[in-house]
Design goal:
By secondary structure, the protein is α/β, with parallel strands linked by helices. Helix content is 34%, strand content 15%. It has six helices and six strands. It is globular.
Length: 180
């Protein structure tokens, strides 16, 4: 399988990166401190990937991500993903998480219950912590059972999570302190 290609794009939250293969979007990198930091992170995440202009299908995905980050409601659930190498449990978690619409939130426990694995909340959290396609797989919409933000493995941590939820108009952003 050939290494993916990637492109950087500017967003309201900073310079993001997107990687793709012929099968679909393979990664989305939330912003580092600057574009060069995001570029270096993409190179580490996708060894051998080449930076190039996004083809039309990826450009449309970028435009939809930008619209979402400008406050437009789009669940991005129809965007094709390349989850090659992602464990089956994680794929199932991502599929359930993708069903959470913008402006709404769910919990790790609720996802575990939907997977018929009610004692696996922590495993759900770990799977979301490994999410290679943030925003498209909306791990930012998953909160603790008490509504707290909890952690967020993306750069900026829980404050980035809160900012994306605020853009989406989620009522839960006022629930509880930033960290659990």
């Amino acid at each position: 399988m050939a290494a993916p290609a990637f492109a950087l794009f500017e967003t309201p939250i900073g310079p993001c990166g997107i990687a793709w293969t012929a099968a679909g979007i393979a990664g989305l990198q939330l912003p580092e401190a600057d574009a060069e930091g995001t570029r270096r992170r993409m190179a580490r995440r996708f060894p051998g990937a080449t930076e190039r202009p996004a083809p039309p299908g990826v450009r449309r995905a970028i435009d939809r991500i930008l619209a979402l980050l400008a406050g437009h409601r789009d669940d991005l659930a129809d965007l094709p993903l390349d989850l090659a190498g992602v464990p089956d449990f994680d794929r199932r978690v991502y599929e359930v998480a993708r069903g959470t619409p913008p402006g709404e939130t769910t919990s790790y426990g609720a996802i575990a219950r939907r997977l018929d694995a009610p004692t696996e909340s922590r495993a759900v959290g770990q799977a979301l912590g490994r999410n290679p396609i943030a925003i498209i797989v909306p791990c930012h919409r998953v909160l603790g059972a008490d509504g707290r933000m909890g952690g967020f493995s993306a750069p900026g941590g829980a404050s980035t999570k809160r900012r994306i939820l605020e853009i989406e108009g989620a009522a839960a952003v006022s629930a509880g302190p930033l960290f659990s």
